[in-house]
Structure formats: C-alpha cells, structure tokens
Write a structure and sequence with these properties.
alpha/beta, single chain
Length: 247
C-alpha cells in the first residue's frame, strides 16, 4: 500500500487526511494518507527513514519554508515563491530516498481566480506576508498583475493597513486576504481596509473558507464587489498535489 501524508504542527483540523482517504476509497486506490505531526522539523528524517512506502506528503504551517533545506530538488516556481507545500518521494534503487519540492498553492490559486479576472484588474493588494501570500503574489504576477503585500507591522517591501486609502483602492482593484482574519470562530473580524471605497470594479478573494462567507467578503459584496472564498483553491491545490505525486 502506498502511503501519503502531511507534516506540520499542530495538525488538529487538517483538511487533507479526510479529503485524500475519501478519494482513495471512492476511486479504489490502494493508498492511505496519515498525519505526521512534527514538533520540530528535524523529526522529518525519521519519518522518511521509517516509512519506506511513503510516496509523498504535504507541508503546512510552520514548515513550508523550513522543509526546503531537506529536499534534493525544488521546482523553479517553489524556489521563486520561497515555500513548498508538496513533496514527492521516490527511492533510487528502491532504497535511497529522493525528495522533490513543489508549490501546489500557486496552481490552485491561479486555476481558481483566473475565470474572475478582467481587463481592469491590473493591480492587487495581498493581505499578509506568509507563505500563502508569496504563492498568491507569484500567481498574480503570472497574469501580469502588479502586487503589493500588506502587513500589520513595518516590513521591507510592504505597506501597512493604515496606508490603504480610498485613493489607493481606486488603483488596486484586486484584494486577496491571505491571513486567518475572519476564520471561524472569529466571525466578527475582518481586515482593516476602507470597505466604503469598494465598487463593482473590485474583486475580493479570501483564502479562508470557513465560514463560507467571511465578514471581509460580506462587506465587499455589500459594495457590489465580486467575491470568492478559498474552498475551490483548497480542492484544486489538493488535486494538483495528486498530479505531482503521480507524474
């Protein structure tokens, strides 16, 4: 039986095990997907050494950047983004593990947002500065969209929320929330932007998918903006990971 899994810490509410084990059962695939909760990234080597049937694994917080130093090869996209969330494991001569890193977040995001983009979507604000925001920014650049990262604190090559003015929103008509702000159970929280300046020219995309409609999206929709949550991206990145493991 082939084995797959996810590494991260903590992994209490991970989407992937349920998704993939249901997929394996429905499609008659002889495989199983496990959680590998690692308090420290150095524990990864033991997982590789003692799981000879491991064919691939996902990577989540806080190891999307740290895992890169453990890999034998990293795809150009993942290298440019600076984060890996899919690792393919092959064994040379049936023994020596060879680890290749990829980023399926960018694939899922691009496939999900592309149908919503219009000619006037030329500039985007990306809320957050973590691994997901890097993937989103990279993906938007592939569509020719200029991006600016927004941070709560002073950081290089970012702006802060208080700098998002109505005038700035006239120019930046795509806003992507890559933070956990508004995620259940914090239903009454939303990123601090001037929602009254949004129009039907704006596209708001939230990587959060629980709840289905965050306060960020509700406020955008009330102004006539086009909105979408991150559920489809989650499903598409999972399928992209499966494609990577099987190519």
């Amino acid at each position: 039986m082939k084995k797959f899994g996810i590494i991260g810490y903590p992994l209490g509410h991970s989407f992937s095990p349920g998704y993939f084990n249901e997929k394996f059962a429905n499609e008659g695939i002889d495989a199983h997907y496990d959680k590998y909760e690692l308090p420290v990234i150095t524990d990864l080597q033991a997982i590789i050494d003692y799981t000879p049937d491991l064919c691939g694994f996902n990577v989540t917080i806080p190891y999307k950047e740290k895992v890169m130093s453990y890999l034998d090869n990293v795809s150009p996209e993942a290298r440019a983004i600076g984060a890996v969330n899919v690792v393919k494991v092959t064994r040379k001569d049936g023994d020596t593990p060879y680890l290749e890193g990829y980023n399926s977040d960018v694939i899922g995001f691009m496939r999900s947002i592309e149908p919503l983009l219009d000619k006037h979507h030329k500039k985007a604000l990306v809320l957050g500065t973590g691994g997901a925001s890097k993937a989103v920014s990279y993906g938007l650049h592939q569509f020719g969209i200029e991006t600016v990262l927004v941070s709560r604190s002073q950081k290089d090559k970012t702006i802060q929320y208080q700098q998002i003015t109505p005038e700035l929103l006239n120019e930046y008509t795509v806003i992507v929330n890559c933070t956990p702000c508004g995620m259940a159970p914090h239903f009454n929280e939303c990123p601090d932007i001037p929602y009254e300046a949004l129009t039907k020219q704006h596209l708001l995309y939230d990587l959060v998918y629980n709840p289905d409609e965050t306060l960020f999206l509700k406020k955008g929709k009330a102004q006539g903006a086009l909105t979408k949550n991150g559920l489809e991206m989650l499903l598409l990145q999972a399928e992209a990971g499966w494609e990577i493991w099987n190519k």
